[in-house]
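Sample intake — T2SS protein K first SAM-like domain-containing protein
Collected from: Desulfofervidus auxilii
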Amino acid sequence: MKKQKGSILIFLLWVIAFLSFIVMEFGREVHLKAKTASCILEAKKDYFTAYSLIQEAIVRLSLPEDDERRILPNGQEIELSFDNQRAKIRVEDEEEKININLVDAETLFSFLTEKIGFPSEKAEELVDCILDYRDADNVPRPYGAEEDYYLSLSPPYKPANSAFKTLEELLFVKGITPEIFWSLYNFLTVYGKNVKYPKKEEKEPIMVKGHYYRFVCEIKNHFFVIITYYLGHGRHRIVYRNEYYKS
């Protein structure tokens, strides 16, 4: 009889332990889903805040010169708020950046060594790899890479052998790490026609019809980027949009 009671007690303890485990796992799953939902809601809030403030920035660019709310496309950060949420906004003329599709090897090398501060050897490697990635042939430069190199990677892929469609495509180029990419991001573009470095600065940046403009909205570590083509008279056409997180 005592043996039977002991067996029942052990069985009940196992049942209790099993149920406790189920409850703990369920609670953990509920907590994880709640946290995920909270992150999604916060990301959506950031999204609507960012695009509302970018719209406000577009309006402010077209205000009269004597209006203190007017902003300039000079890359300087300003703080704006929407729905009790503050953000940093800056507007940049893409013509002030170097077009990665048009720049030649000499100018790109000067930019990488003088502006970014790369050693000559590293700059030469990056120049050759970037130009190899965008040119139409399959003949590698001395420090570059073509199809054979990219097909040897895991997973393998082919170089574009054509113009870069977005700056993010640079991440596929041999030698371009995320750290290097972000060091280049604010100085390069795939829009506009500028191929000079350094470019002569204007006395005061103004909105120019036919130019592309980059709007960057920063909310905490959440960045939203929109590039527009300026049609004149305060009208813009969006040609690119993206968002990313930076720690």
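Post-analysis note: The radius of gyration is 27 Å.
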